[in-house]
Amino acid sequence: MNDGEPLVRWGWIADHAGELADYTGVHLRLGLLPVLFGLIISIPLGIACRHWRWLYPPVLTVTNILYSIPSLALFMIFVRYTGLTERTVMIPLTLYTLSVLVPNVVDGLASVPEPVRLAATAMGFGPVRRVVQVDLPIAVPVVIAGVRVAAVSSISLVAVGQLIGQGGLGYYVIRGLQLDFPTPIVTAIALIMLLALATDALLVLAQRLLTPWSRSKA
Questions:
Q1: What is the pLDDT of residues 108-158, one digit of tens each?
Q2: Which of 3, 17, 25, 154 shows its CA 20 to 30 Å from the CA of 85?
Q3: Contact 60/117 with Cβ under 8 angstroms?
Q4: Residue 28 to residue 168: CA distance in whole angstroms
Q5: Residue 87 is inside which H or E element, if any?
Q6: Do 207 and 143 touch, CB atoms closer than 8 A?
């Protein structure tokens, strides 16, 4: 970068608006699908850990160990089996979400008052029906709190995937570094931050819609 050169060239952004939109969509897909897959895995796993208490410590240990592995190292491991594809990015990101989502599902289920469980049982609710219609709805605020953390983390980590050619907006970070041109880098970082903020706001809205009783208390 030359001295006196502006950090952002707005003309470049205008010229690449369509391309930026495409990469933003890819980035959003790569960031949010792992959270969805992680939630699909974490809910039954969390229910199992809540039911069989002995299962929770080893599951928590495994998820924490997976989270401690650097993302690039996991990408390199999976690239041998899934190639330079989106799956190579999404599988590790899905594994990372488990370290947040599983504990939140367990904690959310633990937050259900025992009198509520007993009342549901007395009304004839079986174990499965009680979990689906009573326990999980009450656990929603705690679960979504974990989803918010997992989503923001996943969206930020997607850019690392560009090192294997699948990083969404990370493409502009690498490209900007290669060309010593800051505009793509700044633009990509700004868009990633906006995606994270927008996703977090939508999840807060979803929580309010799914827990109308919390609004009535307020």
A1: 999 888 888 888 888 887 888 888 888 888 899 999 999 999 999 999 999
A2: 17
A3: no
A4: 8
A5: helix 86-110
A6: no
